Every structure is written in structure tokens, then in C-alpha cells.
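3.2 Worked example (two chains)
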Amino acid sequence: MTEKASLKKLSFGPRRGYYAQIGPNNKFYKAPAKTLKMFDDYDLIYRTLCGILYNYVPKSGHPGGSISSGKIVEGLLFHTMNYRISDPDCLEADILSYAAGHKAMGLYAMWALRNECARVADPSMLPKEEKKQLRLEDLLGFRRNPTQETPLFKKYRSKPLDGHPTPTTPFVRLSTGASGVGVTTSFGLGFGALDTFGKKSPFVHVLEGEGGMTPGRVSEALATAGSAQFYNIMLHVDWNQASIDSEKVCRDGKTPGDYVQWNPAEMCYLHDWNVILVKDGKDMGQVLEAQEFAMKNRNSQPTAIVYRTVKGWQYGITGAKSHGAGHDFCSPEYYETLRPFEERFGVKFGPFACADKSAASVESAFFDALMTVRKVLEDNRAIAEFFGKALASSEKRLTRMARRKRPDAPNLGAIYGNDIDPEKIPAECSYKPGDSETLRGALGKSLNYLNKKSGGAIVAAAADLLGSTSILTAGKGLGEGFFNAISNPKSRILLTGGICEDNMGGIMAGMSTYGQHLGAGSSYAAFIAALQHITCRLHGIGQQARSGYDGKPYNPFILVCAHAGLKTGEDGPTHADPQALQLLQENFPEKIMITLTPWDPQELYPLLVAALKKRPAVIAPFVTRPNEKVFDRAKLGLAPATASIKGLYALRKADPSKKPYHGTVVLQESGVTNTFIAEVLPKIDGAGLNMNIFYVASAELFNLLPESERRSIYPEKLAMEAMAITGFTMPPMHRWIMSEAGRDHSVNAFSKGHYLGSGQAHKVLEEAGLHGAGQWEAVSRYAAFMAAKG
């Protein structure tokens, strides 16, 4: 047992952030009684609308958190934020990002109700284009597929509203809702705004719950924002103590939590945030006071406002049971939730009377309920006009602020301009035969060249591997040291919490989404391909949705799969992972992901630029650690490095007029290809083998070529005969190697049926049978097989 004399109380060290509490006394700001009455009416309508949405999906959505966060969002939209309802895409406007994507029901209800207030009060303030509004009629599309065919959905051209937010909805910048990704990407938006506008940057308000703060990447993101001083971020925490499984998520006073032993205020304060605890988040006066206090007490740190709330407040189901569930369809309990609205406004929702419960009948009743809400706002114009005036005031405040990009803000467009050409390799990114260069080094130099051309539009990060993966070079000459919004804002190197691939991916994706930067994060391929997979998917979903909304090309971020493959052999099978490519290559919809697998440092610049010009959502270059010899491609009769931009290209072609014919070899991965060129190619020449030799530099770049060009480069008959040599796994080669015989003759990292051991690169290749002798044995056996076929 520990002696009492040795027990000490551990307290936080010095903080740059402050801690404050807001209670019922209204010491800092007291909202007028009329204002509070208007907000009470609005929140009643909002809660009722949430209940209607859940009922008529039917029985789908998350009413609890949508309802408990309502007053937080109402305060932001109608009191605190500066934005234009007329322009959802305004770059200089404040942003509200629902990191808590499961509150999408609330987002849609709030957006539609805001739109309706503007329509009733002054329709001229609304966007002219219908797609930039979220109307009450659009709520017919809640959790509906674009193929929905019910009559009113078609009649009113309702938007299909995804179950978690996506940027097909106006004012939504990101796809969120998956395992903490919304926080990290929202903080990336914050960086994008901060670095673009400087001291007058827009605020990014991020809505999350305490359950959504439990993923590790959220702690990593809090550390990044606190350490780098992202002072334009405000995190709004709906602390209701209920998740899907637990009613005691966090420690609360002396009561231990089921999941974690911190509360949201402690977690944010630990990471050096300003923290404002609102004792009663159901009290609109306290909510407004907290937001006023935060805006009037800004300093160099980001701010978290933590609101104590009740999940499902006034809904009839509270706590964990209200997270993803609600009342039965048109049940007495559902109609009881409508009663306060009916009594306040003197209306009656008609009961659902259709016996068939067909989709069309349910939709008709849903529409009638929405029109009842519309009539209430039309009959009670004072409510709509109060909030319409608030929207007009928000727009006026934004205009008065005159936010402008800082004079030396990055120019990302320069990277996509005609001056950057994948077939014109600049001297800074060129290497002479006989030179020695790493692929990671060549990538760093390519990023640095583009960064200087764009005035610092590329921001680089790594999982504590900046120098090791050479991505540190990307920021060379653009501001030394690490980025800090206060002390070192010119640096293009951002620390993202340490060994934190999860958070790094979200920050890079979020800043790229803002549209003024290109985020590039690096780590071992073994880790980053897996750990950033969710972020890649959500970024892809978001970019696809955004492009569908505004017609603009995607904003990519770069996922650097460094120290890739077997040439990282000294680190052993835990790090030298051949499986990473299989997680990414051709594993996403078209134009979402482009993987790059160069073998020659000369290929880095053309491949990277070719990929950027295609504007995918994610670019994933696989680069190795050791030095590579730069071969004299012309002397060896190999295609030039710029041929790599086709994705698949012939290093050499067989002579069709010459017999015998020895088939087709397809190579992928730097280690095996350098070995092939150095040790196997001379033997092929010595033996007089008549072979096609292809290299896969990017499966996705090849896929984006016109079909006729693809067939010309690699006819199907070649795929039906070819064998593969790859330092990755075999599945990524299956589209090139389509016959059983070809696959039987192929060699890959797992050909021996086990994970490989540690050691120098050449010894690991030898264990896999991918060393020079092993490759030659496989090629000669295959050549003999092809010659025998005639």
C-alpha cells in the first residue's frame, strides 16, 4: 500500500489557454427576454421537425443528439457566426462543420428551417439557384437514394439527403461521421482558412459530442490545433453523457466513466485550448453568453465550449436510447411529441390514416406535416422576421469585416496551370545516368519545386518522419522550422501530433478541401495506407459530392506511402509491408484514388504532375528508402521516364517478326525492377529472348486513358499470356495477368507463402525469390514455356 506521505496531487502545468464557466447568473452577457422567447419558439419548431423526420423516414436517423445540440447551433447560426445565406460557397465566411455526422437529421432540419425563415421574411436574401438552398421540400429526401421514385420527391425535385452529411448539401464542406474523422478534417478546414486569410481569418465552428471525442485521432487533432495555435477554431461539445451503448461516457465529478476518465473540458484544457464550460446547455441564455464570451475573449489558442445537455431533451426518449432510435411510426408517443407545438401555435397535425402504408402514402403524410410547419411560420411572421433579420445582420457584419486573402497567400492554381507540364522535367527534378538518388528524395524535390511555383500552397507533414521520408524537403526555402500560427506562420511544415497518421490524414484532407492548399502527409506505407483509409474514403465521398454540387474538379491531398516494400527490410515484416498497395490500387471509384509506383527517380516528377493534372481526391505515391542508381535508359533501349505518365508502358517491345517469341513480363515496384534492370535484363539480352517488358507506374493513370489507347498499349492478348514480377502482392497484378499459366509463372512478395524476415534489401528479396537469380529463374522458365507454345 502506498504511504500517505508519498501521495501528491498532479495538476496541469502552465497553459496558454484559459478556463471559464458560464452559469445562470448572466454576468458577462444577458440576452433580451424577447430574444430568448424567439429562440424558445424556434427550438420548439426545430425539435418538432426532428421528430417528424425520424417518423417519416420512417424510423431512421439520430433524434437524440440532433435535439440536444439544437440550441448550440441556433446560437451559432443566428447570433455568433458571420456568413451569407445568399452564398453558401463564400470563402471568407465562417464555417459550421458537423463533425458529429450522426446529427445529420438536425443539420437538415436546421438548414430547412433557416431557409424557410428567410423565405417568409425576405426571399431576396436566398440564393437564386435552387441547388444552393435546402428547402422544406428537400426534407422529403432525408435518407433517400437518388433513385427514389415517390411522387412528391420527383415533383419537388427534392435532394437525396445522405444519412451522414456530404457536400451535396449547401453549406456542408466535408463528409463526416466516421470514427472521429470529422474533427480532424474540420481542423484542416480551420488551417486552410487561417493560412489563407491570416489574422482576419474566418472562424471554423466544429460541432461534436463527447462520444465522438473518444477516438484517438481526435486527441491527436486537439494536440495539433493547440500546439500550432489554430486560434480560429471553436469546438462546440454537446456533452450529454450518452453514446450508443453507455449512459456514462466520461468521468463526471466523482463518478467514473464507462469509456474514459476525462471529461471534454479536461481533455481540451489538457491540449492547451481555451475552455468554457456551460453548466446548462438547455438554457439559451447561457448558450448565447458562452458564445459571446468566446468571441470577446479571443487569444492565441483555439477555443472549446462544452455544453451540458440532455440527449433527446423533450422528445420523450432520452439518453442512449435516443441515439439512433425513436418512437414507433405514427404511434401515440410520436403524436405526444407534437403536442407542445400544436398547443403553442394552435394547429393540429392530421393523423396518419392510410391503411396501406405505401411509400407514396407515407410521403404524402410527411409532406402534409412539413406544410403544417410552413403554415405556422407564415402565420407567425414575427418569428420568421426575427431570424431573417439575424441572417441579414450576419451578412452585414461579414461585409464590414472586409476579410481579404493575405497579400502573400498561396496560389494553388499555379500547380494546375499550363506552365507545369509532366513531360517537361525541370532541372531541379532531373537526374543524370550514374547519379544516385532516393525515390523519397526525388518526391521531396518535386513537391518543393511545385511549392515554390505556387507560393507555398503545399503543406507537408509526417508521422515523426519528416527527414527520414524526405518530405521535409517540400518546405525548403519557404520558411524554416515548424508551422505555428503565431510565431512561425510562413513555414510549410506542420507537426500533426507526433506519430499520428490518423489525424495527419484528416488535417491534410481538410486543408485541401478548403481549396487553397495541397496537403501532403508521409509515413511508412505499412501504416499510412491502412490508417488513413477511412479518411481517404470520406474525402473521396466528399469530393465526389462537392463536384456534383458545384461542377468543379476535386481538391486532392497526397498520401505519401514512404519506405515502401521489401527494400525496408532491416525493419522487418512489421514495417517492410508489400500489402499496402493492395489496400489502395484500384480499390476506389474512378478518379478518387491515383496510386503511383515509380521505379526510377526520373519518373517522380512526371508521374506526380500527371496525377495532379487529373485532379483525383487522393494521390498515393509509393517511394522507397534506399538510394537508387539512375540508369541510362537510352543506352539500355528503355522507354524514357516520361513514358510513365501513361500508367502502364513498355520498357521494351518484342520484335513481332522474330521467332521464337518469349512472351510478356510485367513489372511493378522499385526494388524488383532495379534488380531486374541491373541483373536480369543483361541475361535476357545474352540469351536473345524476344520479350515484351512492361512496367506499371500507375494503374489508375492507365485506366483514365481512352479505351482505344489502353488497348493499343496493352492488348488483351498480352494480358492472356503475361507473367508478373512484383515486390507487392499478387492481386494488384491480376488485371495485367489474366491467365492461370501467367499467374503460375509469376513471382511476388508472398510467393513463398509467408511473411518475410528482416535484413538488408537484397537478402529480403532473395528470401522472396525476387533477387536477380530468382527473377532470372522465373523468366527463363516462363520463356521456355512460351517458346514451346509456338
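3.2.1 Second chain
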Amino acid sequence: MAAWLVKMHKTRPLPLRSVIRDALRMRCPYCQRGRLLARWPNKIFPECSHCGLSFFREQGYYIGGMIITYGLTLALVIPVFLVSLLLPDLKTVSENARFALWVLFGVPLSFLLMPYAYSLWLHLDFWLEPWKPEQRS
């Protein structure tokens, strides 16, 4: 691991902007080399393949990631819904058809955002309270 990265973890936390950028790359928050995602959308490796940092601190750890997924999905769906109210063509579509369209928009969107939300949860937790990888034998 790069010496500057070890020094960075010991001296001061990274700026929040860097944490968010690193979370979007879906890499280990400690070494930035190991992949976080084993399989799409939310199968996460138990630990980093490079440094050994555990990605699961406790049972139910990624419930916070689920909340972030929900919040991000709402943050995108609500503005699109409000803009769609201004479109005259959608007023001719029945309410059931509109509901079906919103479900067809919202559910895939949440699956698309899920890995990024889980990564953001892990990175924010590591940023607030960093932990070290366990020593490998």
C-alpha cells in the first residue's frame, strides 16, 4: 500500500467530496484497490482482496445502505413526477397506467442505485469512524 495513503489514514480525514468520489468507484475505503461488489446489485465481498478490510462490521450493517437507496430513489422520482404533471399528454392516460409507469421507472432505478448507495454507506461509515484491516497470517 502507498505510504501516503497510510499517512492520510493516520493524520486527518479526507474531505467529504473525496469520500463520495471514492464511493462511486465502489472500491475499498482503506486501500482504494479492492473491489467492493462481488455481484450486481448488492452482493458484497466479505473483505477487501488487497488489504483485508472487513466490509461487514456487524449483522444488518447495510440497512443504512438500503435507507440511502430509498432516499436517492425518491430524490430522483419525485422531481420527475412533478415535471410529468406539467405534460399534457399524460393527462389522457388512466391512473392505473400512470401508476404502472411509475413502478416501471422506480423499481429498476432503485436496483441501479443500490450498489452505489451501499458503497456510499460503507465509505461514510469508514470516514466517520475508520477501522483497520485484520492482520493476515
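3.3 Remarks
Residues 41 and 111 are 6 Å apart (CA to CA).
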